[in-house]
Amino acid sequence: MPVRVRWRQALLLLRPLIRAVPWRPPAVAAVMSGLAVLPALLDDPAPGVGLWGLRAAAMLFGAAASFAMVDRMAPLTVAPTPRWLRQWLRLTVVLVPAAAGWLVLYALVRGALGAAIGPAGSVVVQAAVCGLTGLAGAAVAARYRHTSTAALAGPGTQAVLVAASLFLSGRYSPWSVPGEPSWTLVRPYWLAAMPIIVVVLFLANRDTWPLRVRSYGR
């Protein structure tokens, strides 16, 4: 199908998808994210508190955005557009405001603490991994289930990975902050996680294969 037709389909789907997305979780996440970075905006915050607040904000936005990945009407409707297009539109519709909200918080924290929170590239990569992990988990669940509870796979995936990371202590802990010896050591691991998450999203957002019924006696 021509690319122009796909763009036209995407534009036609955009408005109904915006109405269909549950916006209450992102609204709650925005408020909680503001509270997460609030200690960094106070006078003389503890070392690393700004980076921890931004990490928590990214996780909250990602967990909230997970609820948009499940199409509860999928089993009841026959859509003229492919599933991959609808899923990527769902992700874009919810990811753009989530990313914008996080960037506003980042600008506030950076303005208050300066370089104390670390290089911009490292902070953004860590936030992207923390947030997109939830979206990837929900996207995988949405491939097999179309109920609202499937979206819980997003925050569930985040919780499992955070719990597992706590067993990596010392120089191998991914939760180091600027000034610690392991800060530069774990940076490549955060970068390596990004393409893995993107691959998971691509695999999860593919079209579903139709079931083939084998005919016997033919």
| Number of structurally distinct domains | 1
Number of helices: 7
Find the count of extended strands (DSSP E, 2+ residues): 0
Separation, N- and C-terminal Cα atoms? 34 Å
Which structural category fits the helices and strands?
Answer: mainly alpha
- Radius of gyration, CA atoms, in whole angstroms: 20 Å
Low-confidence runs (pLDDT<50, min 5 residues)? 210-218
Strand percentage, roughly? under 5%
Mean pLDDT: 86
Estimate the helix proportion, in percent: 55-70%
| H and E string | HHHHHHH
Q: Biggest β-sheet, characterized?
A: none
What sort of overall outline do the alpha carbons produce when their principal axes are compared?
A: globular
Provide structural commentary.
The protein is mainly alpha-helical. The chain has one domain (3-204). Helix content is 63%, strand content 0%. The protein has seven helices and no strands. Helix 2 (24-41) packs antiparallel against helix 3 (49-65). It is globular and about 55 Å long.
Defining key terms:
single chain, 218 residues, mainly alpha, 63% helix, 0% strand, globular
Gist of the model:
By secondary structure, the protein is an all-alpha fold.
Ordered list of secondary-structure elements with their pairings:
Blueprint lengths: L2 H18 L3 H18 L7 H17 L17 H31 L6 H23 L10 H13 L21 H18 L14
